Amino acid sequence: MDNMDLTPIPQNYKNNVNWILGAYTDAGVTFPNGFQKDAIQNAVGARRTDKWKNWRCDISLAKTEKGKYVIVEDFGTVGLTGKIIPISEINELMANGGKLGPDERLSRFTSMFNSGGNTTGGGLFGAGKSVYSVASQSYTYYYDSLREDGVYVANINRCGRVLPDSLTNEDAKKFIRDKTGLSEKKSTGTRIIIEKPREDLIDSIQNETIIPFIQESWWRIIERLKDGAAISVNGKEVLVPKEIKNDATHHCELQNAETYADGYRVKHFGLYVFDNGNNRWSGISYYRKGMKIGDIDLKDIPKKVDGKFWGYVEVDEQYLYCKKSGSTGNSHRPP
C-alpha cells in the first residue's frame, strides 16, 4: 500500500481562481478596482522591511509585436529570491505537509496556496497572485525578477501550468523576449506581464479611471511615500487629492491611539464633514496596514450630514477584524 504510485488529483484551475470575480461583485467593486488593490498589496508585501525607501509599484500597459499586456512591476524589493526548486520537488514537499520558508519567494510564487510568510503586506485580505490569472482572458501571465543576489529568473503561469524549472539569466531573458517581445527587467524587483488582459482593465489604465480607486484604497500609504517612492500608473505618480481634507468645513481626528480591548486597537480616526456636499469620498472605511479593507455599515445617519461626510478608522496589524462590518476581504476566499 505504501508503495503506490500516486499523482495529484485533477483540478479545474479556472474555477479555482474565478472566486475572485465573485468576491469583487459581492463587495460591490469593479474588477479594475479590485485588481489594483490586490496587485499593489502584493508589491507592498514584497518589501524586505516596513520601510518605504526606494519602493515603487507601477501598473502600466505595453504593446509589442506579440500582443497587448498589462504590467505590474515593483522596484526596490528583494525580487523572487530562494533556491531554484523543480516543480516536482515543490509538489512532493507540499504533498507531505512540508512548508516553504519566507525567503523561498520564487517557489512560493510558482505554486498555489503558498503566498504567506511575509509580514510587510496587508495580509489576510488579498486574492494573492491568482488575481493576475483572472485579469487575463487566457488565464496567462509571465513573470520575471531581477533578484537582490543578481540572479535573473522567469517563468509563466498558463491556466495553472508552469515550466517544470524556472529559467535563469540568459535563458530567462530569451524566454521573455521570445514570448512577449519585451526586454528583461533591469531593476531589482519583480514584474508581472499579463497576457490578453481584460478590456475593462485596459480601459481603466488607459483612461486613468483606475487612479481614483488607487487613491481611495492607498492614500494612507501614499501620504508616507517620499524620496522617489511612489505608486504610479503608466509611470505617472498617484497623489492624494488635497481636497479630501482641506475642503472640509468640520473635522474631527483622533489625537492618540485607543485600545478598547485585547486585540482591538485603533491607531487613527478621522471624520470630515462638507456642508456643501462636495466630498469626493463618502461613508466611513476601515484601513489596516495602510490599505482600505472594508466599509462600516452605518445606521441612523443624521439628515443634516447624510451624504456630506467621509471618514476612516485605521486599526493596527493585530486587530481582530469582525466580518460583519462589511469587509471586502478573505471572508470570500476559499479555505
What's the end-to-end separation, in Å? 30 Å
Quaternary state of this entry equals single chain
Shape: globular
Low-confidence stretches: 116-125, 321-335
Total helical elements: 10
Helix content: 25-40%
**Roughly how many Å is the radius of gyration?**
21 Å
Mean pLDDT: 87
Order of helices and strands: HHHEEHHHEEEEHEHHEEHEEEEEE
Quick one: how many beta strands?
15
Tell me the strand percentage band: 25-35%
SSE-based structural type: alpha+beta
Major sheet description? 9 strands, mixed
Characterise this structure.
The protein is α+β, with helices and mostly antiparallel strands. It is built from ten helices and 15 strands. The chain has helices at residues 13-17, 19-27, 31-45, 87-95, 105-110, 130-134, 169-180, 199-206, 210-222, 243-246, and strands spanning 56-64, 67-75, 140-146, 152-158, 161-162, 167-168, 189-195, 230-233, 236-237, 250-253, 258-261, 264-273, 283-288, 291-295, 309-315. Strands 1, 2, 3, 4, 5, 6, 7, 8 and 9 form a nine-stranded mixed sheet that branches. Strand 8 (230-233) and strand 9 (236-237) form a beta hairpin. Helix 3 (31-45) packs parallel to helix 9 (210-222). The relative contact order is 0.15. Mean pLDDT is 87; it is low at 116-125 and 321-335.
Question: Quick recap of the structure?
Answer:
Helices cover 26% and strands 25% of the residues.
Features:
single chain, 335 residues, alpha+beta, 9-stranded mixed β-sheet, 6-stranded mixed β-sheet, 10 helices, 25% strand, disordered C terminus
